[in-house]
Known about the structure:
four-stranded mixed sheet; 39% helix; 4 strands; ArsC/Spx/MgsR family protein; Glutaredoxin
Amino acid sequence: MIEIWLNPACSKCRTAVSELERAGSEYVVRRYLDQPPTTAELEDVLARLGLEPWDITRTADAAKLGVTLPAKDLDHRHAWLELMSDHPALIQRPIITASDGTTVVGRDPESLERVIDAG
């Protein structure tokens, strides 16, 4: 089973769903704007991605949301996680996790293929 965090208004999310359906993958949708991830869930996803919070943050959207981003360093890492949980629109999308733990930010065909193959 595959889980996809998506925003239905996002074209990359719609493309990812289409690719999952075309591949015949079973998946569940989490509308992360309606059900924001906790800081623990973000930690888990980041560990699987091998990334830091600022790597999956839509930094250009921060100003639109009236959010000031912390420094990109380990001293401020938890502040990033809290900010992303409080303002989930800052999270890059779609984030897709396969049942084996393979996790990608599914914005390109190669990432989508990797998670579909793992699912």
